[in-house]
Amino acid sequence: MKQYAAHRVYLAGTEEWCNGPQVVSVSEGKVLSLFPFSGEIPSVEWLGGLLIVAPCLPERMEAESLPHFLKRIPKSNMDSGTASGLWHVTFFDVHAMEFTAASRIIACDVLLLLLTVQDRLRNSAHTIAVATATLSDSLVVCPCG
After folding, report:
1. In the predicted model, what is the mean pLDDT of residues 6-12?
2. Is the pLDDT of residue 57 over 70?
3. What is the distance between the alpha carbons of residues 39 and 42, in angstroms, rounded to a whole number?
4. Calpha distance 24→8 (Å, rounded)
5. Could you tell me the CA-to-CA distances from 133 to 26, 120, 142, 143 in Å, in that order?
């Protein structure tokens, strides 16, 4: 299970906004629970901006406003038997409650995959750097001749 927190959370199934920052628990790409963010919680990743709870989202049209986008979320997928996924809107203007030119919508299970790959790459780069430094140090202390 993974937990994410953000300034704003929109529940597409009920077309409701949650009051204040929220923590959303997700497992295998499905939303399990939602509760108010009240302070630092271990293993909660702060994404900031906007999280949308919905089974699926339409593609965002260029220069589309947030209210127009939210109205286009398919209502046919909102029946009680459909599990909801979690979507993060990057570079979201929380004060204006609007997309910015840089905003992108990413499924949180994809985000988790990207963060995992990024951590592995960072760890691999660190391992290579340490190995290179160790090898370089070894070469420096090796006697010549």
Report:
1. 94
2. yes
3. 10
4. 11
5. 40, 20, 14, 18
